[in-house]
Amino acid sequence: MGNLKKSLMSSLMKKFVMAVTGFVLASFLLVHMLGNLQTLEGGPHAINAYANFLQTLPWEILWGFRLSLGACLVLHLLTAYMLVIENNKSRPQRYSVKKSQASTFAARTMIFSGTIIAIFAVIHILHYTVLNLDPSFKLLEWKATSGMYEGKTIHDVYAMLVLGFSNPWVSIAYIFSMVVIGFHLSHGVSSMFQSVGFRNETWRYRLNAVALAYCAVIALGFSINPIAVLVSKYTDCQILPVAQINKQFDALKSGKGEIFINYDFLKEGCKSAVKK
Prior knowledge:
Distance between the termini: 81 Å
Number of domains: 1
Number of strands: 3
Shape: elongated
CATH class: Mainly Alpha
Largest sheet: 3 strands, mixed
CATH topology: 3 helical TM bundles of succinate and fumarate reductases
Number of helices: 11
CATH architecture: Up-down Bundle
Radius of gyration: 23 Å
CATH superfamily: Fumarate reductase/succinate dehydrogenase, transmembrane subunit
Order of helices and strands: HHHHHHEEHHHHEH
Helix content: over 70%
């Protein structure tokens, strides 16, 4: 009896840890998505200022946040693996079959979608944060012409995102990963409420609807940038200045030193629109 009680408490604690870390990660996704969407504000100003603000936070805050987020991701994944191992050991085969038939596909594949997300997170950090996958991105700089950073030279995140998503394979892999994240959240957000005791039969369907809406917002929101780049690159619909940025980058990357993309063409586009 004592061993059973200990096992139950251990499982409940693991589920609680899953819920708390899942909430932190899901909340971060929303904030990160809103920050990324600043690429659609007509130029590099908003996204570059936002990125520089984050990168120049006091190191205690910046690294405290990064380490906390990384710890949540590792803890969330490790706890999930431990729960899967415990469940496989404790459930008879016949019960497992019945459980699989009753649960959703998203619920049965959480460990696989979670693993894909973890791999994506590592690659994404190497690509757009550490800048190891394309070292030339480190050379991209931008001189602010207005706002709180006026006259200062900061990293050109706007150009980096456009250039990165200009590779169709990168965009396709990114969009696929966003679909997997949305799929994972469709069950994870709802079960999170159950793990902390907020979900009952009355609220089950309502919270499931909230989870579906949230996963759709996250998946679609993150997919907008790569879709906008691909549409701008391969059609006449110019959502983002993909051709201009790629042309300048290709001409300048062979040289030494920093790479500054000239965004004067954005002003010329505005003047043309006013004349028309």
